[in-house]
Specification:
globular, 3-stranded mixed sheet, 313 residues, mainly alpha, metalloprotease
């Protein structure tokens, strides 16, 4: 099987300069947004609460997600028209996109989140407000089921697909794109209200999540597991439980009323839950050659080097 990074050069037109504009555009917008928040000393959480009070939660959610439709569309057009690369080669090394992998990781994180939330709700009912409203939740469900996968897919295609392949082909290694895309994914969330509420420590969670998603992408030679996991995580979250200090303040089933603490809740996923998920996936999909897949060299046809087969389907 072809490896995930070099497939971009084999099935597309690889030129280093082609990878410059999309990161400059999207990450530039994120940087400007963050600088504006810092310079103007904006309380993002408070602003969002005011917007929800004025417009309603569903409209705020819709307005927050719509830009990602544009971002994903522009990224796909750039890859197709400029890189001459197929969507399949941006996604996976398999003969076709493996939807079973996407659904497996989607339901794994979704079921886990629902079960853990239920346990916590039963153990600490005083921390939650039952918020279910049939009409509002139905509208939220329609918005979320369509747009949240688009939002998460853009982030995955941009970081774990486009940048992972571009940086890997440019620097001819795997460790640098693995670490850099994870760091950039974490820093993208600096403008979230959670950062203002909990402090910089929450970046451990965001960067750790980026490392986990990068690891399963490289080890599985494709983005399917990352696509499903990210979509399941965000979709379950926005529908099941939100709070007035989170990035999405929706008409979810539950509202978390507890005062957040920057402690074990942040570290637990990174040091315990993600390793368990990684172990399950590794056993299920028979991952091998960990050192090569995560830290080995990258060979591409443009450098006249032989492409090394490092995995089995």
């Amino acid at each position: 099987m072809k490896d995930f990074i070099s497939i971009a050069a084999q099935e597309g037109s690889f030129k280093k300069w082609k990878y410059i504009l999309p990161p400059l555009g999207f990450l530039g917008l994120m940087a400007i947004n963050y600088l504006a928040i810092q310079l103007l000393q904006v309380d993002v959480g408070q602003v969002m609460q005011q917007e929800v009070a004025k417009k309603g939660a569903n409209r705020v959610v819709l307005e927050s997600l719509i830009p990602f439709v544009v971002f994903l569309g522009l990224l796909f057009l750039w890859v197709k028209l400029v890189h001459k690369q197929t969507l399949k080669s941006l996604t996976t090394t398999r003969k076709k996109i493996d939807w079973k992998r996407i659904l497996f990781s989607f339901f794994m994180i979704s079921v886990f989140t629902v079960v853990m939330t239920f346990i916590d709700y039963k153990s600490n009912p005083e921390n939650y407000l039952y918020n279910f409203n049939t009409e509002k939740f139905t509208i939220l469900f329609v918005i979320a089921i369509i747009l949240v996968p688009i939002q998460t897919s853009f982030e995955e295609y941009f970081f774990r697909g486009y940048l992972m392949q571009g940086l890997g082909l440019t620097f001819k290694n795997r460790w640098l794109p693995f670490l850099v895309t994870s760091l950039m994914f974490g820093l993208m969330h600096l403008g979230n209200p959670e950062v203002g509420k909990l402090g910089p420590i929450i970046m451990v969670y965001y960067i750790g999540t980026g490392l986990f998603l990068g690891l399963i992408t490289l080890m599985d030679e494709g983005m399917e597991l990352a696509l499903g996991f990210h979509a399941g995580n965000n979709l379950t979250g926005i529908l099941l439980v939100t709070a007035n200090w989170t990035a999405f303040q929706s008409d979810s089933i539950l509202k978390d009323m507890a005062e957040p603490e920057a402690g074990l809740d942040i570290l637990l996923p990174v040091i315990i839950i993600y390793p368990i998920f990684t172990f399950i996936m590794a056993k299920m999909y028979n991952w091998k050659n960990w050192k090569q897949k995560l830290f080995g060299r990258v060979y591409d046809s443009s450098s006249q080097e032989k492409i090394t087969t490092i995995s089995e389907s």
